[in-house]
Amino acid sequence: MPRRLSKSSGSVPAAATTTSTPGSSLPTFLTDGLPLPSLFVFDLDYTLWPFWVDTHVTPPIKAVPSSSYTTAATDRTGDTFKFYSDVPHILYTLSSTSKTRVGVASRTHAPDLGREMLKLLYVGPPGQQDDEGKKKSDKFKPKRALDLFDGGLEIYPSSKIRHMEALAKRNGVRYEDILFFDDESRNRDTETLGVTMWLVRDGVSWKEIENGVKEWRSRRGIR
C-alpha cells in the first residue's frame, strides 16, 4: 500500500489520499469550446505526488514489479512511491490535447532523482489499463510520465519565477497563457509575471484542474 508521507519531518506517514477519477470521457471544461491555457505547469512534491523526493526517497529507486506497466517505485528502504490517484489520468489526457502543453516547475535539491522517478512511473490511457491479453495500438500504449511533459522540465533548486521564465521562453507563450499548480502559497510570486497560479492543498485532482481553469478564464473575462 503506497504511503502518503507527511510534510512534517519525523512524523509517521499516513495512507495516501484518494479522489474519484472521471471515466474515459473528457471533462466538460476540456470540450466546452472555451479557451484553455496554452501551458499547464505542475510542481512535483505534494502536487503530483505525496512526498518530497529529496527528503523522503532514499536512492536507488526501482520499479515495483507488476503484471502490467509500472505505476509505483520503491527506494532502498522499501518505501513505495506513486502519483496522487487522479494524476495519471490527468497527465495522459492533457498531453493528448492538441490545444495545450504540459510542463514541470520543481524547486528540488534532488533533480536527478526527480527525473528518475518520472522515468520509472508509467501512465496509461483511461479505460485502457491492465487488460491483459489484449494488444494495444501504439496510440493507447502506456507511456513514461517523463515523456508526457512536452512543455519541458524545470527541475532544480531555484525560484519559481526563473522556472516560469524558462518555460515561457521555451514554449513561446505569454505568461498570461500559463496555468501553474503548486502546493506552496509563497510561489504566488509567479503571478507578478502574469501567470495564474492555483494553490492545491492535497495534491492535484480533476476538481483542482477544473477550478484552476475556471480561475484562469475568470481573470480573462471568459464565462
List keywords for this structure.
single chain; 223 residues; alpha/beta; Rossmann fold; five-stranded parallel β-sheet; three-stranded antiparallel β-sheet; 5 helices; globular; HAD_sf; MDP_1_eu_arc; HAD-like_sf
Short précis:
With 223 residues, the chain is an alpha/beta fold. It has helices at 28-31, 87-95, 111-120, 160-171, 206-218, and strands spanning 3-4, 14-15, 39-42, 62-63, 73-74, 80-81, 101-106, 122-123, 143-144, 152-155, 178-182, 196-199. The longest helix is centred in the C-terminal third of the chain and has 13 residues, at 206-218.
Write the layout of secondary structure elements.
Elements (H helix, E strand, L loop, with lengths): L2 E2 L9 E2 L12 H4 L7 E4 L19 E2 L9 E2 L5 E2 L5 H9 L5 E6 L4 H10 L1 E2 L19 E2 L7 E4 L4 H12 L6 E5 L13 E4 L6 H13 L5
Parallel strand pairs: 3-7, 3-11, 7-10, 11-12
Antiparallel strand pairs: 1-2, 4-5, 5-6, 8-9
